[in-house]
Each structure stands twice: as structure tokens, then as C-alpha cells.
């Protein structure tokens, strides 16, 4: 079993302290630390031991900005949900100075190979492992669902060098929090039955 530095948070502390962070310092997470996070990610449970995950790390700020602009453009052009298009939230998400990655210095993509019906579930479990491990190491993360649709277009997969049959499941921004995020309270677990 791997030893964990006692300066790091325990798993229970990480579960309760992890927050979606949307304000980062410029400090780029080292390659060594990201490799540790990916190693934690792949310890996740995996159906039929398929290990369907693949990862991509993007730290090029110009590329991150281009993906962000592309996602915002797609949202601007979408006519699918007229009520949302008219909303203040839509205006916020398409504003010129809004970056869907909140200027985070790193983006990790958790991607799935097309194997079995649980590939997506496995990847989300890996994503949570990664986020909890990041929290334990004093780093901050946030899932950016906004990026999923655009990243899964053939154009972006081609540009990123991801083959067409790979599905991008969980884009996760990563870095050092510039300020501590406030806890978002949860409703109590609703128990439907206990028989
Ligand atoms: C599947 C998924 C997609 C998400 N997409 C976004 C997103 O596009 N942008 C964003 O700012 N936060 C996104 N979030 C973060 C959630 O808003 C956040 O987890 C939620 O408000 C609860 O806050 P907490 O993580 O601090 O507990 C996403 C979270 C999940 C699980």
C-alpha cells in the first residue's frame, strides 16, 4: 500500500473540505503532482476491470482560452432552449470576459474508451478520486460540464489528437485556490426505505 504524507488531509477531511473552486492563482501544478493525481484516479472501482479511462492534460493558456471561446460560441448559436437564451445566466456565460475554465492553469480531461456499459460510471469514479486526492494535497478543482459538448466534437477531438471513439467524460480544472470557496450545503440524505 502507498504511504501518504501525514501533512495531507485524510479521506474524510477531503470529502468534507472539497469545494468547486472558480478562482485560481497562476501557479501551475507540477507534472509530478498531476501524475500522482492520475495514479489516485486509476485506483477507482472499475466494472469488469475494464479500466476504460484515458487522460489528457492541457496547460497551454492559449489553447484553454480557445476551447472556452468555442464553447461560448456554441452556446450563443444554440437555439435549443429559448428560455435559457433569454436568461441572465446565459448572458453571464457568453460575456466576452468570461472564461469557462475560470483561468485555471490546468485542465485534466477524464476520457472513456468505448468499452462496456459502465465506462462512463468508471470515469466519474476516477474523476472523484482525482478531485479528492487534489484536495488532500491542498489543490483545488471544479468539474466543467460546460466544456463536454464542444470537446466531444470531431473538430476538437482532431485538434487535440483524441481518436473519435474516445468520449470526453469529465473536464476538471485544477490549480491553487486564490480564495477559499464557501461550502455549498447539502440536503440530508433521503432514505427511501431501510428494511
Ligand atoms: C457533472 C458536473 C458538471 C459541472 N459543470 C460545471 C460547470 O460547467 N461550471 C461550473 O462552474 N461548475 C460546474 N460544476 C460544479 C458544480 O456547480 C458544483 O459541484 C456544485 O455547485 C456543488 O458545489 P461544491 O462542488 O462546491 O460542493 C459541475 C459539477 C458537476 C458534478
From TrEMBL:
TM region(s), chain numbering: 130-151, 166-185
Coiled-coil blocks: none
Name of one Pfam family that matches: Nitroreductase
Keyword entries, A-Z: Membrane, Transmembrane, Transmembrane helix
GO MF terms, alphabetically ordered: oxidoreductase activity
Residues annotated as domain Nitroreductase: 15-175
Protein name as catalogued: Nitroreductase family protein
Organism per entry: Undibacterium jejuense
Organism classification: Bacteria, Pseudomonadati, Pseudomonadota, Betaproteobacteria, Burkholderiales
Amino acid at each position: 500500500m502507498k504511504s501518504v504524507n501525514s501533512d495531507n488531509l485524510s479521506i474524510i477531511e477531503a470529502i468534507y473540505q472539497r469545494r468547486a473552486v472558480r478562482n485560481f492563482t497562476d501557479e501551475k501544478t507540477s507534472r509530478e503532482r498531476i501524475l500522482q493525481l492520475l495514479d489516485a484516479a486509476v485506483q477507482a472501482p472499475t466494472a469488469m476491470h475494464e479500466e476504460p479511462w484515458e487522460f489528457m492534460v492541457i496547460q497551454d493558456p492559449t489553447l484553454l482560452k480557445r476551447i472556452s471561446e468555442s464553447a461560448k460560441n456554441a452556446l450563443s448559436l444554440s437555439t435549443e432552449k429559448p428560455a435559457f437564451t433569454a436568461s441572465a445566466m446565459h448572458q453571464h456565460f457568453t460575456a466576452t470576459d468570461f472564461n469557462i475554465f475560470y483561468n485555471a492553469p490546468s485542465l485534466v480531461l477524464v476520457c472513456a474508451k468505448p468499452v462496456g456499459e459502465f465506462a462512463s460510471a468508471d470515469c466519474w469514479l476516477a474523476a472523484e478520486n482525482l478531485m479528492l486526492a487534489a484536495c488532500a494535497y491542498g489543490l483545488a478543482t471544479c468539474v466543467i460540464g460546460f466544456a463536454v459538448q464542444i470537446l466531444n466534437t470531431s473538430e476538437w477531438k482532431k485538434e487535440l489528437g483524441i481518436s473519435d471513439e474516445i468520449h470526453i467524460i469529465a473536464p476538471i480544472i485544477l490549480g491553487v485556490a486564490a480564495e477559499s470557496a464557501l461550502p455549498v450545503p447539502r440536503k440530508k440524505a433521503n432514505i427511501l426505505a431501510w428494511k
